[in-house]
Design a protein that fits this description.
Layout (H helix, E strand, L loop, with lengths): L10 E2 L25 E2 L4 E2 L8 H17 L4 E3 L8 H9 L4 E3 L3 E2 H6 L1 H7 L1 E2 L6 E6 L3 H10 L6 E6 L4 H6 L9 H14 L4 E6 L4 H14 L3 E5 L15 H11 L5 E4 L7 H9 L3 E4 L1 H5 L13 H14 L4 H11 L1 H6 L1 H9 L3 H20 L4 H13 L6 H6 L11 H6 L10 H16 L3 H24 L20 H11 L2 E2 L4 E2 L12
Parallel strand pairs: 4-5, 4-13, 5-8, 6-8, 8-9, 9-10, 10-11, 11-12, 12-13
Antiparallel strand pairs: 1-3, 2-7, 14-15
Bound molecules: flavin mononucleotide.
The site of flavin mononucleotide has 22 residues, from helix 11.
């Protein structure tokens, strides 16, 4: 089936897939437990396309303004690929997030691939209000995707901010901002034919006036809410830098009376929400990285606590809401970022483990070490309090100050460029990055290869050495043959030696699934 030109009322299914028994329920039943997980069905039928009445369009236009006002929503969790998954959405809600966005979903895959659809969207009734975000570059596909989620969320959003190369190749995100007519057509189609209000998430353009014109066009086309990220498309990776809140204010002044504008960028400390609202005039604040490194920044009372406590609680949510391994790993990395820089072996374990129990063990170990670090003389109480006081007094903590705080206290992550801005580097001195670059140029020259190749080789060597190092930690040698022993093996042996010993001595080893003691050999897993 061609998702781009699909006729009305078609059945959406993956090519070659026949799932006669698959449920076709597309709404969350009324009497369901608010925490029960609902997944999108693999097979879905789009109802007849009907044009919205003027009243519906008018109602949708008012929806976000009234919802944000009535529910006093000011704190919003940003859409983040693999990171604003159900578990993290629910976790941040506990600590102050009032509106959440799903990770970006590819509209084309969502419409055409039942397996992708099922895996890309997990929902619970308690996670509302919720916006489902799509990326798309075709009017029909985008509209079909939006109509598929009509009964499971409160709004749909078009991602016009993603600056990555993958988005450039796929022609979506911020790379679509050069095709404003197409964007407007997509937005208008949803306004006219979908029951949900449509919003857009944009980046500021290089030029102030251009940004304002862009925002006006989107609102004219039917956008009922705008999120403005105060960085341009080129501000990414090492060049991320600080968001410019004054550029967000331009948009608020231009269209703020017609639709709500949310500000995004640089929310890293609790007080930043109020500061940003004041500086931009935006009605609400959206945070992404700030919440990843410290999921409690929206909760002024608890904002700076031990990272291992936060990580342990997140893992409970991950278990409850069935988060995927890559999302869990990335969250543990970010929440415990500063501590994992101290404990290299734990960092390696985070990158290699897969099971949730393993992540729990790592966090437990981190807690033990952090506590003993604290007992070993660092004046944790005073330092933590200083950090909090500084924030409360509205003194924006600079990177140097933050880096002085104990690593186990949650705090934001600063990129080198921002650190440099905060005058960690004296005048005329070279930044860490510049020094690294010089070193790499020297290596490349010696090896007679390009800088890119030299960097690749360096990385390969580094990761090889790290994996070997981690393997040493993970797999102690088998007590019999010296090969790596199985993880958690009851006999401290490799699989083969464990089987030999278990069979002859009638022992159980659960990790290797040998049950010679508890089950007769005939039904043992060795067969
Ligand atoms: C891990 C990660 C994933 C992201 N994924 C998305 C996404 O799916 N859709 C989107 O519009 N923006 C995405 N973004 C951008 C954020 O929503 C946000 O606009 C950006 O990080 C700036 O906000 P911040 O300064 O609070 O981090 C992502 C950002 C991060 C860090």
């Amino acid at each position: 089936m061609d998702g781009e030109t699909a006729p009305e009322g078609y059945v959406v299914e993956k090519c070659g897939e026949s799932e006669a028994n698959e449920e076709e329920q597309t709404t969350i039943p009324e009497n369901v437990d608010p925490l029960q997980i609902f997944r999108m069905p693999k097979r879905m039928t789009l109802p007849e396309k009907q044009k919205n009445s003027d009243e519906t369009i008018e109602k949708n236009l008012r929806f976000w303004k009234e919802t944000l006002e009535n529910q006093r929503i000011t704190k919003v969790l940003a859409p983040m690929v693999d990171q604003s998954e159900l578990a993290f959405r629910m976790f941040t809600r506990k600590y102050g997030a009032q509106l959440t966005f799903t990770p970006m979903i590819h509209a084309h895959l969502f419409v055409n691939d039942g397996t992708y659809r099922r895996n890309s969207l997990a929902l619970v009734k308690a996670d509302r209000p919720l916006v489902v975000q799509f990326c798309a570059n075709k009017v029909d596909t985008f509209l079909a995707a939006c109509r598929l989620v009509e009964d499971v969320c409160d709004g749909v959003d078009l991602n016009l901010g993603c600056p990555q190369m993958v988005a450039k190749r796929g022609r979506y995100g911020s790379w679509l901002q050069d095709e404003v007519d197409l964007i407007c057509e997509m937005v208008s189609a949803v306004r006219d034919y979908c029951r949900l209000p449509i919003s857009c998430k944009i980046r500021v353009r290089d030029d102030r006036q251009q940004t304002v014109e862009y925002a006006k066009r989107l609102v004219d086309a039917g956008a009922t809410m705008l999120t403005v990220h105060g960085r341009t498309r080129d501000m990414k990776g090492a060049e991320t830098g600080l968001a410019d809140w004054s550029r967000i204010r331009d948009v608020v002044e231009a269209v703020g009376s017609r639709v709500p504008v949310m500000a995004n960028g640089n929310i890293q400390f609790p007080g930043d929400v109020e500061r940003c609202m004041q500086a931009t005039g935006a009605v609400a604040i959206m945070s992404a990285e700030g919440l990843l490194y410290n999921p409690l920044i929206f909760d002024d009372a608890n904002a700076h606590v031990d990272t291992w406590k936060i990580a342990a609680e997140y893992l409970e949510y991950a278990k409850k809401f069935n988060a995927g391994t890559s999302a869990i790993r990335a969250h543990v990395f970010r929440i415990c970022h500063h501590s994992l820089l101290e404990y290299e072996d734990l960092r390696m374990r985070v990158s290699l483990e897969h099971r949730i129990e393993d992540f729990e063990n790592i966090v437990e170990e981190l807690a033990k070490r952090a506590k003993s670090d604290a007992e070993a003389g660092k004046n944790r109480e005073v330092e933590a309090r200083t950090l909090f006081e500084n924030i409360r007094n509205g003194i924006l903590m600079n990177a140097i100050e933050v880096s002085k705080q104990p690593h186990w206290i949650s705090k934001p992550y600063f990129r080198l460029k921002e650190v440099a801005k905060e005058s960690i580097v004296g005048e005329g001195e070279k930044t860490f990055r510049e020094k690294q670059k010089e070193k790499l140029a020297q290596t490349a020259k010696e090896m007679g290869v390009s800088m890119k190749q030299a960097r690749k080789r360096e990385r390969r060597q580094l990761s090889g050495a790290r994996i070997l190092e981690a393997k040493k930690i993970k797999f102690p040698p088998c007590a019999r043959c010296g090969q790596p022993a199985g993880q958690g093996c009851a006999n401290s042996k490799c699989k083969k030696c464990c089987r030999y010993q278990s069979k002859h001595e009638l022992l159980d080893c659960k990790p290797h699934r040998y049950l010679f003691a508890s089950q007769p050999p005939a039904v043992s897993a060795e067969n």
